[in-house]
Amino acid sequence: MVMKKVILSNMGKQTEYADSCDWKAPKIEHKREKAKAQKSTIYKHKGNFKWSGVKTEKYKHNSRGWSAIVRNVLIGDHGETCKFHLRYFEIQPNGYSSLERHNHEHVVVCIRGKGKVLMGEKFYTIKYLDTIYIAPNTVHQLSNPYDEPFGFFCIVNAKRDKPKEVRSKNKKK
C-alpha cells in the first residue's frame, strides 16, 4: 500500500498527516471540553441525616423571616455542572422557612418526620415520601408544628432567581 501525505490548512497553519485508515482528524477544542472535568462522587450517609463531605449551613445569610432551619447542599456546591441542585433542609419543632415566592419551580420530598406547607392560601400536611411540586411564583412556606424534626430534599434549578420575601402576618401554622 502506498502512503501519501495529506496537508491540511487551518487558518494559515499547515499540518501534515499520513493518508491511512488510522488517520484521525486534528482535535478541535469545544467549549464543553474546556469545562472542568467532573469526578463522580458518592456522599455516604453517616446517619442522623448527615452526609460525608457535606456541611450543615444556616438556612439563609440573613436571619429575618425564618426560624430553626438548616440546609445541606448535596449536589450543587462541589463543582458539579448539572442543571439542578439537590439540598436537604431540616426544620426543628416550631421552626419555619421564609414566606416567599420566586420565578423558579422546585420539588420537595419529605424524608423525615412530617410538616406543613403553605402553597398559595392553603395549608397541607406532608409526611414521609410525600412529594410537592411548587410552581413558579407560588407563595409558599414550610413549617414544623410537630414534636420531631421535619426533613426534606429540595430540588431546584442550578440557575435561578433570588426568592422574594412576602410580607404577611405570621402565616406559619
UniProtKB/TrEMBL annotation:
Annotated organism of origin: hot springs metagenome
Residue ranges of every copy of the Cupin type-2 domain listed in the record: 88-156
CDD domains given in the database record: cupin_TM1459-like (cd02222)
Which Pfam family name is an example for this entry? Cupin_2
Q: Matching Gene3D superfamilies, A to Z?
A: Jelly Rolls
Q: Which InterPro entries match?
A: Cupin_2, RmlC-like_jellyroll, RmlC_Cupin_sf
The protein, known as: Cupin type-2 domain-containing protein
